[in-house]
Write a structure and sequence with these properties.
By secondary structure, the chain is mainly β. It has no helices and eleven strands. It has strands at residues 5-7, 11-12, 18-23, 34-41, 48-54, 59-61, 69-74, 79-84, 93-101, 109-110, 114-118. The strands form two sheets. Strands 2, 4, 5, 6, 9, 10 and 11 form a seven-stranded mixed sheet that branches. The chain has a four-stranded antiparallel sheet with strand order 1-3-8-7, with no helix packed on it. The protein is globular, with a radius of gyration of 14 Å.
């Protein structure tokens, strides 16, 4: 059974860099042909796809966030990490990591989500 577990600070100050990690017990982030995504949901709004890292290590970003988003991985720990720089209160959201198989229509596994608040 694949699990995804997000971890990171719940409170970040404006202009700082937010760093969140998704750990995947029971699965491998290098297994063909899965993509590992970061998705967020601001209060009162819908889900927003932020970016993904593929089984190969290739990365993909939302055009609107690309300039201050970075996704990396540590295959030895079976983790992938989101870094969002220069955060503002508009980055306050529940952040999720999720897995999707290449060609699939839906994500098959999600983390439980972690609340991040940007406030001074």
């Amino acid at each position: 059974q694949v699990q995804l577990v997000e971890s990171g600070p719940g409170l970040v100050k404006p202009s700082q860099t937010l760093s969140l990690t998704c750990t995947v017990p029971g699965g491998s982030i290098t297994t063909n042909y899965y993509y590992w995504s970061w998705i967020r949901q601001p209060p009162g709004k819908g889900l927003e796809w932020m970016g993904a890292i593929a089984y190969s290590g290739s990365t993909y970003y939302s055009p609107s966030l690309k300039s201050h988003t970075s996704i990396s991985r540590d295959t030895s720990k079976n983790q992938f990490t989101l870094q969002l720089s220069s955060v503002t209160p508009e980055d306050t959201a529940v952040y999720y990591c999720a897995r999707v198989e290449c060609g699939a229509l839906e994500y098959d596994y999600w983390g439980q989500g972690t609340q991040v608040t940007v406030s001074s």
